[in-house]
Design a protein that fits this description.
single chain, alpha+beta, two-stranded antiparallel ribbon, Prefoldin, Prefoldin subunit 5, Prefoldin_subunit_alpha
Length: 154
């Protein structure tokens, strides 16, 4: 960023005052914190999709019908039930809509979602790393400016 023109969203850091650099640094800190939070949420969602695949493989596809099991109503509340079918499952396709799919279709659905999230996670990692690098540049320029002003004042 340093030495770049102000076109295209780039700023010459050397031309900014220490106060302006502090404001840019705070904005970048906030962005990095938000992106890091989003990264954690994406990783959590990807893990849930992988858990769904595991549940299909271990709990449905290789089981027998009428097998007793616990059905999750919430993350901490389960009720007893029986496995009605080992061929089909209900899949949450988003916003509270459920679709009946074969176990093979359900696994493909969750694998696709997991792959999509993995791609988004990698893209987000790249963005976070870029913002963190910009943050380090700003901190270095701020240090240089403070040292220069201290030496000029001494």
């Amino acid at each position: 960023m340093s030495g770049a023109s102000q076109q295209g969203g780039q700023i010459d850091l050397a031309s900014l005052s220490v106060q302006q650099l502090a404001q840019v640094k705070k904005q970048l800190d906030d962005e990095v914190q938000h992106l890091t939070s989003s990264y954690s949420q994406l990783r959590s969602a990807a893990q849930k999709f992988r858990d769904c695949i595991t549940s299909i493989n271990a709990g449905v596809a290789n089981s027998s019908a009428n097998k007793p099991l616990l059905v999750p109503l919430t993350s901490s509340l389960y009720v007893p039930g029986t496995l009605a079918s080992t061929e089909t499952v209900m899949v949450d396709v988003g916003t509270g809509f459920y679709v009946e799919k074969t176990t093979h279709q359900a696994k493909k659905f969750y694998e696709g979602k997991s792959e999509e999230l993995s791609k988004n996670i990698k893209d987000l990692e790249t963005i976070v790393n870029g913002k963190a690098q910009n943050l380090r540049l700003i901190e270095e320029v701020m240090r240089q400016k403070v040292l220069a002003s201290n030496q000029a004042g001494a």
